[in-house]
Amino acid sequence: MAINYVHILQPCLEVLVQDSIWPLNEAKNRFSTVVEAAQKGTPQTVTKHGVPAAVVISTQEYERLHRLQQMQLPAFSDHLLNMPTDDGAFDRAELDLRYVDL
After folding, report:
1. With the CA atoms of 74, 75, 77 and 83 taken in that order, what torsion angle do they form, in degrees rounded to the nearest 10?
2. What is the pLDDT of residue 16?
3. Could you tell me the residue ranges of all domains in the chain?
4. Low-confidence residues of the chain, pLDDT below 70?
């Protein structure tokens, strides 16, 4: 299952400084520098044609985000979809109804 971290990483992307944005060629040539900066806690954005294409984060940050993903509660719709359905196996109750004048 692919994990989508876009909504979790968005606040990190908004506070990036210029030193943490790398064009793809430069990131490739200086990958060890990119990794070291990520290990220090600053996410490193790699751009392709000026558009953010990837983010390099530390292993600790990845594990934290992964734990958050695992802890997310299912949506209410998931709860409803997991409820048992009425397959007609139950008999209707025989009740005497009372009539009300309206």
Report:
1. 30
2. 46
3. 6-73
4. 1-18, 88
> Distance of CA 59 to CAs 11, 69, 77, 100, Å?
18, 15, 33, 69
Name the burial class of residue 27, with classes exposed (0-12), middle (13-18) and buried (19+) by CB atoms within 10 angstroms of its CB.
buried
CA dihedral 52, 1, 43, 61 (to 10 degrees): 170
Which of 45, 10, 11 has its CA nearest to residue 26? 45
What was the pLDDT predicted at 33?
A: 97
- DSSP assignment letter at 19: G
Backbone angles phi, psi at 46, to 5 degrees: -105, 130
Closest alpha carbon to 16 in 41, 39, 33, 36: 41
Nearest-CA neighbor of 43 among 17, 6, 25? 17
Rounded to whole angstroms, the Cα distance separating 48 from 30 reads: 15
| Fold (topology level) of 6-73 | YefM-like fold (3.40.1620)
Q: In this structure, what token pair is assigned to residue 10? A: 């968005």
